[in-house]
Amino acid sequence: MLVKSAPAFLAKLPDSVLTALAARWVERTYQHHELIIAHGDSGCDVFFLLEGDARVTLFSHDGREIAYRDVEPGEIFGELAGIDGKVRSASVVALGQARTARLPVAAFRDIVNNHPAFAWALLEHMSVQLRRMTDRVYEFSTLVVRQRLIHELLRLTAESTLVFGRASLDPAPTHIELAAKISTHREAVSREMSSLAKRGLIEKRDGRLIFHDLPALQALAEQDE
């Protein structure tokens, strides 16, 4: 069943906490593909995405991208280093122009200690990320490419407005982007997308990806190969 995602991190905070954050963070704008956080960096400051989109990602030794999650406006990122003080576990890259707020680690820890609403929102955020990673490990370990692809497509459509039982993504995700999210290669995604199109379940039109039958997609994802 498709469920709308929870409100973004900043939207959960009372005005008093937002005021405390804004008084101590520093804003900056990044351009498309500009690195916001670098994997292995020793910095521990915490970030919030104010406008635009970003992606948490890693690259393998052979150059293959592994996309962990996309960051949307209002979300927090870089919080792991802010909590444990260790090096960055992944990179974060701007997707298009993105405006961020950077909170020094000392200010982050002070706000956690003095604002229970912020601390609780952080716990909820960490819980969501842990559950999501658990689901992804299960999918990578037990599902074939077609099933993983459909699950990812259904996640992407969860925020879409349904019109006569149909959903669409505009712009359509590239096959390279989808491959990075489901731990496979572009050719495998292209092959499965072609198969779904032949079944009449999806259609690429005017730069959009249109979903004609979400229940049928869901049923196909649950079929054993």
Any overview of this molecule?
Helices cover 41% and strands 24% of the residues. The N terminus is likely disordered. Strands 1, 2, 3, 4, 5 and 6 form a six-stranded antiparallel β-sheet that branches. A three-stranded antiparallel β-sheet has the order 7-9-8. The chain is α+β, with helices and mostly antiparallel strands and 225 residues long. Helix 5 runs antiparallel to helix 8 and helix 6 crosses helix 7. A hairpin with a 2-residue loop joins strand 8 and strand 9. The longest helix has 27 residues. The chain contains eight helices and nine strands.
| Rounded average pLDDT | 90
What's the end-to-end separation, in Å?
Answer: 21 Å
Strand content: 15-25%
Largest sheet: 6 strands, antiparallel
Order of helices and strands: HEEEEEHEHHHEHHEEH
Q: Summarize the amount of helix as a percent range.
A: 40-55%
Q: Number of DSSP helices?
A: 8
- From the spread of the alpha carbons, the general shape counts as elongated
Rg (CA only): 19 Å
Question: What's the total number of strands?
Answer: 9
Structural class: alpha+beta
- Uncertain spans, ≥5 residues at pLDDT below 50? 1-5
What's a quick, concise take on this entry?
The protein is an alpha+beta fold and 225 residues long. It is 41% helix and 24% strand.
Index terms:
single chain, alpha+beta, six-stranded antiparallel β-sheet, three-stranded antiparallel β-sheet, 8 helices, disordered N terminus
Draw up the topology in text.
Layout: H1 15-22, E1 26-30, E2 35-37, E3 46-59, E4 65-71, E5 76-77, H2 79-84, E6 91-103, H3 105-114, H4 116-142, H5 145-157, E7 167-169, H6 175-182, H7 186-198, E8 202-205, E9 208-211, H8 214-221
Antiparallel strand pairs: 1-6, 2-6, 3-4, 3-5, 3-6, 7-9, 8-9
